[in-house]
Amino acid sequence: MLRRPVEQSRAPPGCDVDFRIEPELCVACLACVRVCPADAVAVDGQQVHIVDEACTRCGLCLPACPHDAIVAHGDLGRALELAKGGRATLILSVESAAYFYPDTPEQVVNACYAAGFHTVHRGVLGDELVAQEYLQLWSEDGWGTMIRSTCPVVVETIEHEYPELIPYLAPVATPVAAEARYLKRMYGARTPVVYAGVCLTEGGPDVDAAVTFEDLRQLLQRRGVGIPEQPLHFDRLPEERRRHLSTAGGLPLEVLMEETHASRRFRKVRGMGQLEAIARAVAVDHIDLGFVDILPCEGCLDHPLLGPRDQLFWRREIVGATEPARSRLPVIDPDVAEGVQVAEAFPIPRNGLRPAEEAVEAVLGEIGLAPNGKPWDCGACGYPTCRLFAEAAALGRTTLRSCPPYLDKQAQQAKLQAAVDSLTGLATFRVLRDRLASEVARSARTGDPFAVLFVDLDNFKQVNDSFGHEAGNEVLRSTAHEFGPLIRSTDLAARYGGDEFVVVLIRTGTDGARGVAEKVRAQVEAMGRRLGYPEALVTASIGLAEHRPGPETQDVLVAADRALYRAKAAGRNQIATGDE
Predict the structure, then answer these.
(1) What 3 state SS string does 185-253 have?
(2) 27 in Cβ contact with 67 (< 8 Å)
(3) In this structure, what are the phi and psi dihedrals at residue 72, rounded to the nearest 5 degrees?
(4) What are the pLDDT digits (tens) for 28-60?
(5) pTM given for the model
(6) Which of 93, 227, 288, 569 shows the smallest number of beta carbons within 10 Å?
(7) Residue 321: DSSP 8-state
(8) How far apart are the first and last CA of the chain?
């Protein structure tokens, strides 16, 4: 692939432009995390913030946030200072016509002059310079694949995510950067340049300050300038507004007319999700794609800072109505353009920050595998695979709270914890309550009885006081262990609370339940001797009650509890029934 040598390399932006999350408005819903294509949103507990060095300023997080917690900030303070100085040149992007509507472009330009800007340009010169550069590249042979490089979001995404595509970026500066260099050549190298638009990193270090349209509105207000009060005609001779070569964004009109969108030499692609397919086609399959006109959205008029997407065609109508007729002659002064560097170089960066493999595996372990034994890879978290999600989570760019399989796993574990007593491993009172209700209903349908044993450890407080609470816990665990061999799988043993247990015996009458109760009592007494406690210290009193369906049936658990009190009153370590 042919590339002409260039002297100027890409540098970090020279102005303070960023997206911020307002902490008082953010509720950590993670909507911004799911849409960010650059993994530039970091999550630390309930705190969410944007990682400035990773952010590509695509703006997708703004409309995604349902709480209006994300705001875009330009360098308003610097721009205000430069306007006050009276020497600054303003590049006012054409999208301003839609943003400031119903105020007219003439009124906006007049207001900018009134605020102190020395000259106001509309970005046309930069588009013309870039279009001229693209025409020269287009005329060359053998370049195979060339990716449009005038969108900083595309360029930064390629640098961060697809470095294999960097050699295929067209070596052309952004229109704003090209215009800033042209204006400094025209008015003097020390002339400050301010850019007002939506893609704030487009000017890079060639722009002294970049502001959003809202920032510009505030600048005018601070300078005491009202847009509606300005005349409807230009009160100064306007700078060049006509185009000769270019369309908005810097593509040559000649190329667009020569090649249809279905051409093998020209491909129009919209959406950053297409970069993965482009990277595979170029780097893996070695396919020559021709010129790839890729943008993250439908041009700057579709940028989130300009408003909802459903107003895109309205904005296009407004801007289209303000465009003047095309110029028949070139609008670029060749003497000035001769010293302007429009070419750009894109150095391949070194490997960036990678998460530790142990941390990634730990996140994957938390997520677990799908029932088929493979990773879920459901994409519900916003990442195509669980591994990519785990890498982002290990870097703090997302959290497991945005992973549905993990949340479902946690819910199942919480449900299990609510059903099983953590100390004894028996069912909890909550499960016992539901089971008793279902057994009463089943008994009413079938006429079958069932029995309940209410078991209470005798002298348990004395065990705790004399031997310690850990010894008491061991007695509780051992008692629960004794129930297992004595009941069927259809029966239920539950911890009622403290040192009290309840056993539900399905399809069992009083006689059968008494036999089970006697075995439980004897096993607990033997367990106490086995653990080394004094004779008759660890024993159990048991209350037994049978439930039979009928109109006057009492609560079986209450009946078993009353029987338990009778067993204790009779001397403990014995069994009492509810019909005694």
Answers:
(1) HHHCCCCCEEEECCCCCCCHHHCCEEECHHHHHHHHHHCCCCCCCCCCCCCCCCCCCCCCCECCCCCEH
(2) yes
(3) -100, 130
(4) 887 887 777 777 787 777 778 777 767 777 777
(5) 0.64
(6) 569
(7) H
(8) 99
